[in-house]
Amino acid sequence: MTPIQAIKDWYVSLDDELQSDIAYMFVSLPLGDRQFAPAAAVRRLLQWFDVRSAGTEHEDALAAVMFRASFEYIFAGRFTGAGWIFPEQMFKDVIREAAEGKEASKIATSAFQLLRNFPDRKTKWNEARKNWNALVNSALNDDALRQWTQDQFLASDFGPTQD
């Protein structure tokens, strides 16, 4: 299995809400596509996985490195208790400002819903973290990616010939 396919398999095993979060951030930031509809971002990320896995072994491994680095940079806070403090406070502030009649009232309903689902979201992210770390430790660490790339290269037509 290619590294990108391993990431895609991990990704599609996630809850729809987490898939939307990851797709939106990855498509918007590293890929630079400003897809605001969650379903469109998910489709775009799945397409990216497919295109990357159809490339050479080096393209696949480098795409895995790009995804791993981007994912860990963007979502590192979701993997720690401290990382949840800021968003929780932000949602509370939005709700408080809405109650005071300030501009935040436009997003207060969403903030309230997100805050209400906070414990469930933290649990989902904790499970995703465990599975992500297992994947990185087994198949996506630098040594594993180098070994996979070398194995694929040697098995291809470009590897050493036996003349």
What's this entry about, in short?
With 163 residues, the protein is an all-alpha fold.
Task: State the shape.
Answer: elongated
Q: How many runs of DSSP E, i.e. beta strands?
A: 0
Mean pLDDT across the residues is: 89
How much helical structure, as a percent, in the residues? over 70%
Give the helix tally. 8
Could you say how many structural domains there are in total?
1
* Proportion of strand residues: under 5%
User: Largest sheet, if any?
Assistant: none
Tell me the series of helices and strands, N- to C-terminal: HHHHHHHH
- What is the alpha-carbon Rg in Å? 19 Å
Plain-language structure description:
The chain is mainly α and 163 residues long. The chain has one domain (3-154). Helix content is 75%, strand content 0%. The chain contains 8 helices and no strands. It has helices at 3-12, 16-28, 38-53, 57-75, 85-99, 105-116, 118-140, 142-155. The mean pLDDT is 89.
Characteristics:
163 residues; mainly alpha; 8 helices; 75% helix
